[in-house]
Amino acid sequence: MALPTFNYLEDFVGRTPLVRLKRLPGHTSNTVLVKLEGNNPGGSVKDRPALSMIRHAEARGRIKPGDTLIEPTSGNTGIGLAMAATMMGYKLILVMPENSSAERVLTMRAYGAEVVLTPAALSMPGSIDEARRLEAEGVGVILDQFANPDNPLAHYESTGPEIWQDTAGTITHFVSSMGTTGTIMGTSRFLKEMNPAVQIVGVQPEPGSQIPGIRKWEDEYLPKICDFTAIDRLEHVTQAEAEETARRLAREEGILAGPSSGGALAVALKLSAQLENAVIVSIVCDRGDRYLSTGVFG
Prior knowledge:
The radius of gyration is 19 Å and the shape is globular. By secondary structure, the protein is of the alpha/beta class. The strands form 2 sheets. A 6-stranded mixed sheet has the order 1-2-10-7-8-9.
């Protein structure tokens, strides 16, 4: 008897569930759906671009197994890259702010990555500057999630088509938090090609709010992959709203997710209160167990 075909771990990146919420939307004519990206092998939406950036860099001959990769990260991209680098035979140095959650740092190290912590006061720009310094010294190669077109390409090729297929083309609104912006850029491009009427809603933090995964960048550090003309509507969310919605998502829907997912869903629920007969899709970026030490669920 011939053996069945068995898949490798990378074959399970993507095809995440699209789940309808039961309680949070209340009594409404709308359908509010969340895409559970925490079901990816590395636990977040960032598995998609991590794999895409390594594969395409290899195909171009820019890197080869055994090389050292460097990446500044606030967390999830680093974990996705740590998993992908291990699978594909690369060394990895991740540079991140020292106030990142302990779970994220420990997870990266568990995958075998070296983690370099930069001062919290410098936030992500400080980590970006340190990664650039390491690359300039010849330590390794930066894949650069902030400027690499293979980041949004991953979502154009997978996230967008999955949402379109799973909603049978009925989606009316797509809501995504904005960090690196790869998810919203790639997904919006595909959805707009399928139906220009689909509304793309980007979520940014209110001034003073610190929400992992949601960021308003200084002009000097704005990701080069970001194109605000691809976004129909920008909405802002407070840290308190993001965290409270994450808690409600866990306690009322049984979905444990992080604050950036709570922020996007808070905006999706506000939209739902203003609309009728809409099909709203919100991205749940990762799993909430990465934030247990932060007190979000305490």
